[in-house]
Amino acid sequence: MATVRPNVMGRKIISAGASAQIILENIALPAQSAKVRILKKEIDACAEVEKLDEAQIVIAGGRGLKTAENFNILNAIAAELGGAVGASRAAVDAGWKPKNHQVGQSGVTVKPKLYMACGISGAVQHVVGMENSDIIIAVNKDGSAPIFNVCKYGIVGDLHQILPKVLAAIKDSKK
Ligand SMILES: Cc1cc2nc3c(=O)[nH]c(=O)nc-3n(C[C@H](O)[C@H](O)[C@H](O)COP(=O)(O)OP(=O)(O)OC[C@H]3O[C@@H](n4cnc5c(N)ncnc54)[C@H](O)[C@@H]3O)c2cc1C
Question: Potential cystine with 151: which of 26, 59, 134, 138 (Cβ 3.0-4.6 Å)?
Answer without folding.
Answer: 138
